Amino acid sequence: ESTGTQYIDTKYVCSNDTKIEIDFTVVNFDTRLNALFGIIDASVGANSYFYSWINNKKLQLRFGPVGKTMSTELEIGQRYVLIQGKQTANVNDVELGGWSDALTKATNSIFLMALRNNTIASYQFKGRIYGFKIYENDILVMDLIPVFDNKIGVACMYDKISNEFLYNKGTGKFLYEYKQ
Questions:
Q1: How far apart are CA 118 and CA 43, in angstroms?
Q2: Please, what is the Cα angle at 157 between 154 and 158, to 5 degrees?
Q3: What is the mean pLDDT of residues 111-115?
C-alpha cells in the first residue's frame, strides 16, 4: 500500500501498442491528483501522454493527446480493475471506449503509483495495488504483484515475467500486510 510518497519505476517504455491492466483500491481521497500510473514526456510532446489518475473522486485517463473522464465517482475501499490502451478503456467491465489518436513512443519509462513528468515523479497514489500488467501487441511483457522481499526486509513489486524485484523509488516505505 502506498501512502502517497512511494512509487515504482517500471523501466518500461510504452508505445502505441501498449495496454495496461491495473487492479487497485483507493484508501484516501485528498485535494491533489493521485496517479495510478503515467508518463508525460515533454521532449516528445502531448502525443506521448499515457496516464490514469484520480481527480475529484473520478478516474481520468489519457492516451496520446486526448483524455477521458469516468462519469461515476470511485469509492474508498472498492476494488477496481482498469484496462487501458489504444483500443480500450475499461473499468470493472464498463467500457469507456478507445482512442483514435496514435501514441508517440516516449523516451522515458512509465511509473507505477505516480506520474512521470520527464524525470520527476509527481501525484503519487494513496492506495493498494494488487496487480499491474503491461501488454505489448497483446503479449504480456510485465506482470507485477506486491510482495515482501525477505532478503532485505522491504515491500516491493515482483515481476513474474522477468523474475525481478522492483523497489520503491520514492520516500518512506510501502505498507504491507503479510498473508500466508
A1: 8
A2: 110
A3: 95
Please state the pTM of the whole predicted model: 0.91
Q: Residue holding cell 519509462?
A: 109
Alpha carbons within 13 A on the beta-carbon side of 175: 11
How many CA atoms are closer than 13 Å to the CA of 104, on its beta-carbon side? 13
- CA atoms within 13 A of residue 136's CA, in its CB half-sphere: 8
Tell me the one-letter amino acid at 65: P
HSE-up (13 A, CA, CB side) for residue 142:
25
Residue 79, all three cell numbers: 476494488
Q: Which residue has the cell 499491474?
A: 132
Q: Report d(CA 147, CA 17) in Å as an integer.
A: 28
pLDDT at 101: 67
Question: How far is residue 133's CA from residue 21's CA, in Å, rounded to a whole number?
Answer: 5
pLDDT 10s digits, 118-150: 889 999 999 999 999 999 999 999 999 999 999
Q: Which residues pair with 20 in a beta bridge?
A: 84, 134
DSSP state of 92: T
Residue-wise pLDDT for 67-110, tens only, equals 777 777 899 999 999 998 887 888 999 888 777 666 677 788 99
Nearest to 110 by CA among 42, 6, 17, 8: 8
| Radius of gyration in angstroms for the set of CA atoms belonging to the chain, rounded to a whole number | 15
